[in-house]
Amino acid sequence: ETLMRNAGITWADSTSRSVEELSAIIMEKTRKTA
What are the pLDDT digits (tens) for 13-34? Predict the structure, then answer.
């Protein structure tokens, strides 16, 4: 679990822009499904 958390943090830091884009896409999907 610790390794996964550390990897997730580094991944988020290295791809902060991608995370924002993914979150926006998820919001759009949730709107369509809802």
Answer: 666 677 788 889 889 999 988 7
The pTM of this model reads 0.42
Determine the residue type at 22. L
Residues 6+ apart with CB under 8 A from 12: 19
Contacts from 20-23 at CB under 8 Å and sequence distance 24+?
A: none
DSSP characters over 1-34: -HHHHHHHHHHHHHTHHHHHHHHHHHHHHHHHH-
